[in-house]
Each structure stands twice: as structure tokens, then as C-alpha cells.
Write a structure and sequence with these properties.
- By secondary structure, the protein is an alpha+beta fold.
- The protein has one domain: Alpha-Beta Complex (tRNA-splicing ligase RtcB).
- The protein is 30% helix and 26% strand.
- It contains 11 helices and 19 strands.
- Strand 1 and strand 2 form a beta hairpin.
- Helix 4 crosses helix 8.
- It catalyses: a 3'-end 3'-phospho-ribonucleotide-RNA + a 5'-end dephospho-ribonucleoside-RNA + GTP = a ribonucleotidyl-ribonucleotide-RNA + GMP + diphosphate.
- This is tRNA-splicing ligase RtcB.
- One of its GO terms (molecular function) is RNA ligase (GTP) activity.
- Monomer.
Length: 450
């Protein structure tokens, strides 16, 4: 029997994989028939390898629930687009290397007409790059001053609060660091100057226009080398404790009450706080660049993570490439600006096809209050470079009027590398998890040149 044949359809957009092999719980998969089975070469359906990773996600000690989002695709250990709820167990695998990676959305008073001039949009790109560092290994010290020890200590312990932000504009002020005496691995501490830098890969800063002609800016980045090196440290140490190869990231789990578990939780939270502060610093620089070039005003609308473990209702909830989705009335939103609407959910698509802002519905409880974090990759980076043509890709971007900071469009981040965002959003709405409030079209994009 194939994996797909094992699935039980609950409703449109919602399947269940019953316990099989080593699974401790059933897994809920939020997929449309199109995303599951595919429709031609541009929509090939779900990779077979995803199912064995879902089994792995549902097999960890302490697991109580597993949900898989519509943008899911093969990762390591568990699929990208997976939510795992556990009781007393921490899963570095389900937080990943880029701890705290996520999004910031900036809302402006500008209109599409205000940013219609390509020369001005080019000047904005240059102004942003002047203010922040971009690319793999880039540090804020290349653009601004070094981060002193006191500032760094405050940021990793208090995140957005250290910058004077509250949970009206951020998913959380900070995640508490319960033991200030924990030692930060030297390899991670050495990356503190990357605070305020964008990074490479799929990280970006993008100017967008919504269906009503309002200008927004979305940015995507995480905890940079600081979080990556914390994750790497615990993958090695966790493997040693389990008697596994140091490359066995797929199977690492930690008892939260052990010494190693407590150390991981505290350092994971420091990386999460670093990531929030990193996004806010970049966001404020981007706001300043917008105001300098175009006039008007801009401010941070919302900030949210999609690679993170958080405590919710007494359990650990690990979201690996998945976004928290609390609807109106959720207890965690009490006394915030979003109590009566639910908080915004920021979903990047691709630099060609655009992005979206969603708000959760009551049905999000079915998916552990989570939805997708993007549209989902369908071509690997290597495959994209082999099968996509540079001239055709650049021409599409030019015809769409989308400016880039790079000479050529990065093939491995172009539109065909990702699933159809509208198919993914349709599935989210079909399953009753969230509704689309805004669909955003890109007009300028800043990428880290790897």
C-alpha cells in the first residue's frame, strides 16, 4: 500500500495519516487534492519522501500531536511545514538550524503611484543596502558599529523588549531565558556582530503593493550565524548523548528536565530573541530608507517567527517552517491589539508571484494553531540552476517591473522554484484554518548575494 493510500480524508483540505510503523500519534495533513496528487508538470504533487519524515515527526518520545501544513516539502528529520506538540520533550530537529527565522511586515502611507518611478525604487534599494548588511556571513559591523557586549546581552535575553517594542507589533516581547548563567558556545558568541544583517539564501527585503494600491514592505531573516551555531552545537551534543552519529540531526530529542535539555532551551530562547531584534533593527532601517526616498511614513505592522519552539497551554509546540495562527479571542492575545481580530499571519510566496497576509479562523485549532510559512519549495537549488534559463528568468522579472539588487535573478529563488501560492492559500481557506486579507505583489526585492 502506498503512503497516499494510507491517508484518510476528513474533509476538503484535511487528511489524516493513521498511526503506522513507529508513530505514537496520528498526523493531520492539510492538503488539497491538487497539492497531494498533482496536476501536470507545474504541480507535481507531494513528494513520497515527505511521508517517511511525517512518520519520524510522530515517533519522537513525548509527542502528543502532529500537523503538516499545505506548503510541506522534504526537509531533514521532519518536513518543512510541520508542527509537533510534545510533553516535556524538546526537538532541535523541529526547530532547525535557523532558530527563530521569521518575518516582519511594514505598513506605509505610500501608494503604488508614489513608487511608480523605477529610478526611485532603485535608489531605495541602494539606501537599504547602505543601512544594513546583506549576504551569507555579512555582519552589521560592515555597515554600522560593532555590537557591544552589554547591548548583545540585553538583546539575547529580552528580544523586542530590549528595543522598546511590545507584543502589539511582535508575536511576543521575548522568550524568557530561565538561567542567565548558561554559557553561550564560543562559535555562536562570535557572530554577535551579525545583529542587524539580512543574510542570504531565501532571506529578503521586498517592496510590495496590495490589491488596493497600498505599499508594504516584507522582510525575511532569522538568528543568522548566532542561532545556526547554537543549533549545530546541540545537534552534536544531542547525538553524543543518544549514541548517534554527529550527523544524525533527524533523530535528536532532549528531555527538557535534563542538563542538556535546559541548556538547549535557554540558548534556543536566546537565539529566538536575537532573531526578533535582528528583524526589528532591519525593519527600522528600511522604514527610514522609505521615508528618505519617497516621503510619507512607514512603521512595523507585525513580526512573527516560523522556525521556533514555544510553550503553549503547558506543552512545547515546535513549528518547523510553519507560522503560528491564533484567531480572535485566543487567550494569548488578551490585552493586545489583536484580541478581537487574531494576529496577522505573514506568508511569503516568491519574488515573482508575491506574498499574502492572513488572519486565523477558529478552525486553526485543528492544526495546532498553525498554518504554512510560505508556498513551499518544489525545485531544489541545484535542480533550479540546471533546468531554469537565466535569460528567460531575467526577462520575466523585467516584464513584471520587479527590480533587484543583484545583476541577475537568483535562479534558485525564482518563481518556478516554488509551489503555486494561490493553491496553498486556497487550501488554507478550504480547511477553515485562516482567511486571506491581503495579496501582495512585489515591485522591488533585495536578496543576499551568496
Amino acid at each position: 500500500m502506498s503512503w497516499i493510500q494510507r491517508l484518510e480524508k476528513v474533509s476538503e483540505g484535511h487528511y489524516v495519516l493513521p498511526k503506522t510503523k513507529t508513530m505514537r500519534v496520528d498526523a493531520d495533513l492539510f492538503l488539497s487534492d491538487k497539492l497531494l496528487h498533482g496536476e501536470g508538470p507545474d504541480s507535481p504533487g507531494l513528494e513520497e519522501a515527505v511521508f517517511s519524515q511525517v512518520v519520524n515527526a510522530a515517533s519522537f518520545p513525548g509527542v502528543t500531536r502532529v500537523a503538516v501544513t499545505p506548503d510541506c516539502h522534504v526537509g531533514y528529520g521532519v518536513p518543512i511545514g510541520t508542527v509537533v506538540e510534545t510533553d516535556g520533550i524538546l526537538l532541535p530537529t523541529a526547530a532547525g538550524y535557523d532558530i527563530g527565522c521569521g518575518m516582519v511586515q511594514l505598513k506605509t502611507t505610500l501608494t503604488a503611484e508614489d513608487v511608480a518611478d523605477p529610478a526611485q525604487r532603485r535608489r531605495w534599494i541602494d539606501q537599504v543596502i547602505h543601512r544594513i548588511a546583506v549576504g551569507v556571513g555579512a555582519s552589521r559591523a560592515q555597515r554600522q558599529r560593532k555590537v557591544d557586549a552589554r547591548t548583545f546581552a540585553e538583546v539575547v535575553r529580552h528580544g523586542a523588549k530590549a528595543l522598546g517594542r511590545t507584543n502589539s507589533t511582535t508575536e511576543r516581547d521575548f522568550i524568557p531565558v530561565e538561567d542567565d548563567r548558561v554559557d553561550i558556545p564560543e562559535r555562536a558568541a562570535g557572530k554577535r556582530d551579525q545583529l542587524g544583517s539580512l543574510g542570504g539564501g531565501n532571506h529578503f527585503t521586498e517592496m510590495q503593493v496590495d490589491e488596493e494600491g497600498r505599499v508594504w514592505v516584507m522582510l525575511h531573516t532569522g538568528s543568522r550565524g548566532f542561532g545556526w551555531n547554537i543549533a549545530k552545537h546541540f545537534f552534536v551534543e544531542g547525538a553524543r548523548e543518544r549514541g548517534l552519529s554527529s550527523r544524525s540531526e533527524d533523530f535528536i530529542w532532549l528531555d527538557a528536565e535534563t542538563r542538556l535539555g535546559r541548556e538547549y532551551w535557554n540558548l534556543h530562547n536566546m537565539a529566538a530573541n536575537f532573531a526578533v531584534a535582528n528583524r526589528l533593527i532591519i525593519g527600522e532601517a528600511v522604514c527610514a530608507a522609505l521615508e528618505d526616498v519617497f516621503g510619507g511614513t512607514a512603521d512595523i505592522y507585525y513580526e512573527i517567527s516560523h522556525n521556533l519552539i514555544q510553550k503553549e497551554a503547558g506543552k512545547f509546540v515546535a513549528r518547523k517552517g510553519a507560522t503560528r495562527a491564533f484567531p480572535k479571542g485566543h487567550p494569548s492575545l488578551r490585552k493586545t491589539s489583536w484580541e478581537h481580530t487574531g494576529h496577522p499571519i505573514l506568508i511569503p510566496g516568491s519574488m515573482e508571484t508575491g506574498s499574502a497576509i492572513l488572519f486565523a479562523e477558529e478552525g486553526a485549532a485543528k492544526s495546532i494553531y498553525s498554518v504554512n510559512h510560505g508556498s513551499g519549495r518544489r525545485l531544489s537549488r541545484g535542480e533550479a540552476r540546471r533546468v531554469l534559463r537565466q535569460d528567460e528568468t531575467d526577462q520575466r522579472m523585467a516584464e513584471a517591473g520587479i527590480l533587484l539588487n543583484t545583476r541577475n535573478t537568483p535562479l534558485d529563488e525564482s518563481g518556478p522554484c516554488y509551489k503555486n501560492l494561490d493553491d496553498v492559500l486556497e487550501t488554507v481557506e478550504m480547511a477553515g484554518l485562516a482567511r486571506v486579507a491581503h495579496r501582495l505583489t512585489p515591485v522591488a526585492c533585495i536578496k543576499g548575494a551568496d
